[in-house]
Specification:
Elements (H helix, E strand, L loop, with lengths): L3 E6 L3 E7 L5 E8 L6 H4 L4 H20 L6 E5 L1 H5 L3 H12 L3 E3 L2 H16 L5 E6 L4 E6 L5 E7 L3 H8 L7 H15 L3 H9 L5 E4 L1 H10 L7 H4 L3 E3 H13 L2 H5 L12 H15 L3 E4 L4 H9 L1
Parallel strand pairs: 1-4, 4-5, 6-9, 9-11
Antiparallel strand pairs: 1-2, 2-3, 6-7, 7-8, 10-11
Helix pairs in contact: 2-4, 5-14, 6-7, 6-13, 7-13, 9-13, 11-13
């Protein structure tokens, strides 16, 4: 059988994973298009951001065609498209650009995909909470040692959303930092059922996925460049995460851009993502976070296989 192609269209980035029938990765790409630009404020897709995203999807189509992918393609969209009232423009554009229909997945499904992709990826054999911090939403899911999902939620909380709502200065002011932390804490109240269930089951192990967490992992390791093999499975202790968060929030966007592992298009939202992760670690009472390079995209690919 031909390989499969899984595509995740997120608020900040578009990602592609091509895998063979035995699960071997053939190609993994991530390109920032910021599809969710302004969606939190306008509830509509920005024309330029949509055009960038469709151009990348057309490029990805060439990638999977060259890799021998024929019909096993799944394109999923998350928070930005979920929130947009004019999402039909996106669906029509994706079909024209790729020959395949896109689908919007719910926050519940996104959480489930992230959990199975992450836990299987790091080979964890104990109960844990998986956090997927995206541009527009954050998913939290508690699962048992035998992969049974016990509680999950999807919050209107993401690094792009927090940045657009709270930050206007560069570097951000103390007042803006305080407002962002209050915004984050208020939204985390919506995940109280997950935190309560984790406490009930005495679970404090946290596994983090997606760009914010993996980039923080690379910075914690002081890597000169982004290297997913060197990041996957590492543990960021809570004190180190807190220090790193404070360091990033004090920097200008230009300064964050010079940090080797920070991929283009993440430098202006990474500090917001770090604040979100730090708040979740604190709320859960965890000693830090285990970084997984495997995530919801791997879950999509596994479903195709």
């Amino acid at each position: 059988m031909s390989p499969v192609a899984a595509v995740d269209v997120g608020t900040n980035s578009v990602r592609l994973l091509i895998a063979t029938d035995d699960g071997t990765r053939v190609l993994r790409r991530i390109i920032t298009t910021r599809l969710g630009y302004g969606v939190d404020r306008t509830q509509t897709l920005d024309d330029t951001a949509l055009a960038r995203t469709l151009d990348v999807l057309s490029e990805f189509r060439h990638d999977w065609t060259a890799a021998g992918v024929t019909d096993r393609v799944r394109i999923v969209a998350t928070s930005a498209v979920r929130d947009a009232t004019d999402r039909e423009r996106f669906f029509e554009g994706v079909l024209a650009a790729t020959g395949h229909r896109a689908e919007v997945i719910s926050g519940v499904e996104e959480a489930s995909l992230a959990f199975h992709g992450a836990v299987d990826g790091v080979g964890l054999t104990r109960a844990c909470v998986v956090v997927d911090i995206g541009g527009g939403s954050t998913e939290l899911v508690l699962g048992s040692a035998n992969r049974e999902i016990l509680a999950s939620t999807s919050l209107q909380l993401g690094c792009v959303r927090i940045t657009e709502r709270n930050f206007t200065t560069d570097p951000v002011s103390a007042e803006e930092i305080a407002a962002a932390k209050h915004d984050i804490d208020s939204r985390l109240d919506g995940a109280e059922a997950v935190f309560a269930a984790a406490k009930q089951h005495q679970v404090s192990t946290l596994v983090g996925v997606a760009g914010t967490v993996t980039t923080l992992g690379a910075l914690h390791k002081q890597l000169p460049d982004y290297d997913e093999d060197a990041i996957h499975g590492i543990h960021i202790p809570q004190p180190a995460l807190n220090t790193l968060s404070e360091k990033l929030i004090a920097m200008t966007t230009a300064q964050r851009r010079t940090l080797g592992p920070v991929q283009p298009g993440r430098e202006d939202v990474l500090h917001a993502g770090a604040l979100i992760l730090d708040a979740i670690v604190t709320r859960l009472g965890s000693d830090g976070v285990i970084v997984s390079e495997r995530d919801s995209l791997d879950g999509v690919a596994t479903g195709l296989l």
